[in-house]
Amino acid sequence: MSARLVIMGPQGSGKGTQAALLATRLGVPAISTGDIFRANVKGGTDLGNQAKAIMDAGDLVPDEITNAMVRDRLAEPDAAEGFILDGYPRNAAQVEALDGVLAGHGVGLDAVLELTADRDELLARLGRRAALEGRTDDTAEAIERRLAIYEQQTAPLTAGYAARGLLVTVDGIGQVDEVTERLVAALGARVG
Ligand code: AMP
């Protein structure tokens, strides 16, 4: 199946969970830039060492680093027929970089999924996740910072994708399975 997708939504909207479930369903890899960065931090690589302090503060890792990482990942054979990008693109420069990479492969996005959730629900979920996972960037300050960056830099990207006819917006509140079904239904014939 061919499905080249981006999933967007603020931290805590459940997009990581949904990206993984949807990826299994569609038979494509879920590619989370946050997970790749975290794996590098854990492995003590140069990339990880460069990214750690930035991530802990809730800021964005510089575009040159992030774009190069995504370009390399999308060149892997398992992404040839499709992928779900989770956490990327996050700003206008990354949107442009992604378009360039895909154009270089002679392909384009099939859809951009946007998961919505209100701020109170997000803060409640992020608080629970901080207690469960112990992520070093789930401090109150870093959470605030990440939500602010999302609102300022990432959420506005949906307008551009909507203008290109790619945006599919889905309510992220509900049981995990329910939300997955909504996503599958909303994607409809866009993938296949
Ligand atoms: P996430 O797991 O998506 O919340 O990402 C965790 C952290 O990794 C972010 O707060 C950023 O510091 C970094 N990161 C992940 N994706 C990106 C991206 N597309 N651009 C810049 N930084 C990113």
From TrEMBL:
Q: What Enzyme Commission number(s) appear in the record?
A: 2.7.4.3
Region (NMP) residue ranges read 32-61
A molecular function (GO) held by this record is: ATP binding
Q: Which GO terms describe its biological process?
A: AMP salvage
Give the record's keywords alphabetically: ATP-binding, Cytoplasm, Kinase, Nucleotide biosynthesis, Nucleotide-binding, Transferase
Q: Which pathway does it operate in?
A: Purine metabolism; AMP biosynthesis via salvage pathway; AMP from ADP: step 1/1
Q: Where on this chain does AMP bind?
A: T33, R38, D59, L60, V61, G87, Y88, P89, R90, Q94, R135, R146
Subcellular location(s): the record lists: Cytoplasm
Which range is the signal sequence, renumbered to this chain?
none
Which reaction equations make up its catalytic activity? AMP + ATP = 2 ADP
An example Gene Ontology CC term for this record = cytoplasm
One Pfam family matching this protein: ADK
Role summary: Catalyzes the reversible transfer of the terminal phosphate group between ATP and AMP. Plays an important role in cellular energy homeostasis and in adenine nucleotide metabolism.
NCBIfam families documented for this protein: PRK00279.1-3, PRK14527.1, PRK14531.1, PRK14532.1
According to the record's subunit comment, the protein's assembly and interactions are: Monomer.
Q: What is this protein called?
A: Adenylate kinase
